[in-house]
Every structure is written in C-alpha cells, then in structure tokens.
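Quick one - first record:
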Amino acid sequence: MNEQSAAYFIFGLVLVVLFVGIIAFYYSKKRHKKVEEPKYKMLDDDE
C-alpha cells in the first residue's frame, strides 16, 4: 500500500468514525427527551 492509498484509507476511516459518533450522540438516551419534546409540543392545542 503506497502513501496515497493509506491517506485515502485513513481519511475514509475518519469520516466513518465521525459519522458514527454524530449518530450515536444524536440518538443517545440523554438527548431523547430534548429531541422528541418539540414534536409533541407542536401537536398540543394552544387554546
């Protein structure tokens, strides 16, 4: 494996790890209420 191939592999690996980290952060149990609350607040009757 030459240097260019290794650089592409490392770059791709970093992107995958970053993507998985963002998904894990967004769907974590701690954020569940914060993420879901606006959806139900929108459906509440204002009157």
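second record:
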Amino acid sequence: MRLRSKKTWSQQELAVKLHIDGNATRGFFSFERRRLAIQAVKTALAAALCWWLALRFGLHDGYWGSISAIIVLQSNVGATVTASRDRLLGTLIGALFGFAFSLFGAPPWNYILAVFCALVVCGLLSMRDSSRLACVTITIIMLVPAHGSRWGLALDRVGQVLLGIVIALLVSTLVLPDRARLWLRDGLAQEFLLLGGFFEAILEGFLSAPSQKVPALRADLESLLSANSKLLEAARNEPSGPGWREGLSLLSEFGRSLFEALLALEFAVKDSHEDRFARQLEPALSHLAADIHARFNFIGGCIQKWRFSKPPEGASLEQDIADLESRMDGVRYTGISFSQAEILRAYAVQLHLKQIARLLRDTRIETSRAVGQGRKETEAA
C-alpha cells in the first residue's frame, strides 16, 4: 500500500534542513555558518567587555570573568541561563568549601576532603553539572599561590564569575538574541513532518516489499527527538508568553508517544508482503492511512504558525476508524480462508492505526487548550 501526495512547502523545507534534497543550493553563507558567525561575534564581544570592565575597575585576575563569559554563553538564551546557573552555583559551593577547608592546615589532605565534600553535596542536591566547577574553584582557592587571605580570594573568584555571567546574559539577550523556544517550535514542526514521512515509509512495506527509507528516517527521528528534548530544557528557562511552556511540553510528549506508536506499527507490518486478508479491508484501510498522513502534515503546519484552534478540513479520523471497523466486521466471516498469522497482523495494524489517529487528534486539541486558543472546542474533523 502506497500513499501518494504532493510534496508540500513544509516538506521541501524539511528536505533542505535534513540535507536530503540534492538540488538544494545553500551557498557559502549557509544557515549553519551564519549561526556560527553570530555566535563567534557574541562570544568575542562578551569576553572583551568582561576584560575591559576588569581593567576599568581594577579587578584582580580579571581574565576569569572573560573565561566565565566564554563558557556560559551558549547558542540561545535558555541554554545560557542554564549554564550561568550551573556555573554560579558551582562557584559558590567551591568558594565556600575552599575557604572553609583552607582554615584546617595546609594541603593535600584538606584539599582532598574539600573536593570530596563538594562532589557529595552537589550530588545530593542534584547539581551534577555544577560539581566540576565547584572542584575547579576549590583548586584555585586552595592551591594557586596568591597574596592576601583565602576569604578575599574566594570573594574575588565569585565576583569575577558573576561579572562574566551578567555580561554573557546581557549579550545573549540584547545582541541578536536567539530564543530556544522558537528553535524548539521549528524543531517540533520538523518532527511531526518527519513522523509523517516515517509513517508513510512504514506503510509502504505493508503488503509489499519493505521500504529502504525506514532505517534512515528512524535514525533521523531519534536524532531530532534528542535535539528537541535538549531545546525543551533550555526553553523552560526563558521568559515567554502564556501557554508557551505548556504547549511545547505537550507537543514534545505527544511527539515521543507517536514515535513509539510508529515503532510498534513498524513491527506489526513486518513479514506482511504475502498477506491476503488485509487486502479485503480496502478502501477503508487506505482512507484511514491517507488521512493520518495528512494529519501529521497538518499538525506540523499548526506548530509552525502556532495556531491550533482551527480543526482540519476533510474527513474525520473517527469516521475513518468507524469505517475500517465496519469493514473488518464485514470480512470476518472469510477468516477461515486465511492463516491465523495474517489475520492477527491485520488486527494489529488496525489497532496501531487507531492509536496513532487518536494521538494526533489529542495533540491538536490538548495543545490548543494548553496555549489558550480553544478551551471549549471539540474535534470537528
């Protein structure tokens, strides 16, 4: 069974971004290179500002502020906030333990105990990303030769890190800002379009030879799901309008649920190329499959526009499901003429298609409610 449909504009964009369109011309200043150039300019600006301010106000070892700015300045605002939080907490914990244990004699035993205690505390507080920074701060305070008290060195270290963090946040927010939530919205739209392509490729292998595209599409989806999961963590740390966090979280959850349902469908259609029982379910089976594929594309468009209140035009998925169930009831009496394996496969495919169709329906309705666009609406199509 093959699904034939014209390639939409969004699908063409997906092909370019996944580098599977051989005719796409990206040129020297490609999308990725422009982002890299912008990130380089912002990082250099933040580091230079920290160094200039350190010289301007006579801060000791002011280069630590530049180092902090370079480390925490990420590709988007949300990731920068996360890295800043981890670095600040790690520095505070390291400064506290470094100063406290420096009061108990000279290294190495007090230094070893300080590192051990900092790692334990960070682990117990679920701040594993801050643990290494805490140990670095302890090392600087306790082992690097310096004039003056260890308490003064600890305060200097915290102040330099704080300067770097503030500058990095200001540059990330004010200079060509890059919002994780916008990248995540685009990534989720890409995800649903790719889920639709994966669905289409799986069904190409139902009652025929398996599609050669399935392994590559599965690998692309796994990479995209992982990237979107990281973007979601960053987006949660960004200021945003009402409903954004809830909507993005819901879409991410539904996307992963749909991927798992598609993996189950892929397993269900395995070894079905010689089945004859499922052919009796036409045209109801093809109608449902075609409408599911169209719904993946529709959801991708809704995400890109961030508009979920308008239901899709055309046939209802619930009606398609009812038609398929009616067709299965009609051919049930012929089951004695077919093997048990192919009958069970047909029922398994039907159940997975129903699950996928209802997940797609719930994706739009629940997201529409989460973002405040349609609290009283029902699935009209």
